[in-house]
Amino acid sequence: MTLVKTCGMTRETDIDAVNAAKPDLVGFVFAPSPRQITPVQARAFKRRLVPGIQSVGVFVNAAPTEVAELVNNGTVDVAQLHGDEDEDYIGQLRRLLDRGEIMQVFRIPPDLERAKEVLEKAKQSLADKILFDTGSKRVYGGSGEMFDWGILKNFPRPFFLAGGIGAENASDAIAAIAPHGLDASSSLETEGRKDPEKIRAFVEIVRTIDPQTNKKKAAQ
């Protein structure tokens, strides 16, 4: 089954929407961003989440001690590293963790040779999970733009896919490259705010995919 991650929750009503839709993971952004929230807000959101939905903290070049504190105190279950964090950083962070997992983000650039170099690094990553997003010189966080998924075909590790993912192309992504998980943020918004209907539609379309065939389940 393809996992579903919805990222960038900023309000209690966003948490209510994901509680109703039941994705597998939700993201709290701690890095500078229009969707940035504080640790205090994140703890309140975590308490509001229904059991079974994991919380993911999105960090960009934060001190390992800062990341570890939010994982160890239960604010987040997964630390998503979206900056320039390298293997030394991951090793240091892992030594500080008492619980939780590490997800490393790899940004796919448009240049094919550079993209292949990124894939080689991703294969060797010490992180528990990896996520591929569109490379952007403008921002560290997600760009909301797609890249050529074909480069990930036959990638040897399970991975999450981000970058312009939403209800309208989720089934195409699963059929094309069978990612372990899909991650959406800006596509779930209307006028810069999370839209409960878009969240519901995104989760629902992924849940209709047959894990054996990676195609939509036949109507009963």
Would you give an account of this structure?
With 220 residues, this protein is α/β, with parallel strands linked by helices. It has 7 helices and 12 strands. α5 links the parallel β5 and β6 (129-134). α1 (12-21) packs parallel to α7 and α3 (64-72) crosses α4 (87-96). It has one domain (3-216): Alpha-Beta Barrel (TIM Barrel), CATH 3.20.20. The strands form 3 sheets. The protein has an 8-stranded parallel barrel with strand order 1-2-3-4-5-6-7-8. This is N-(5'-phosphoribosyl)anthranilate isomerase. Keywords: Amino-acid biosynthesis, Aromatic amino acid biosynthesis, Isomerase, Tryptophan biosynthesis. Belongs to the TrpF family. It is an enzyme of class 5 (isomerase).
Tell me briefly what this model is.
With about 220 residues, this protein is α/β, with parallel strands linked by helices. The protein has helices at about 10-20, 40-50, 65-70, 85-95, 110-125, 170-175, 195-205, and strands at about 5, 25-30, 55-60, 80, 100-110, 130-135, 160, 180-185, 190, 195, 210, 215. The strands form 3 sheets. Strands 1-2-3-4-5-6-7-8 form an 8-stranded parallel β-barrel.
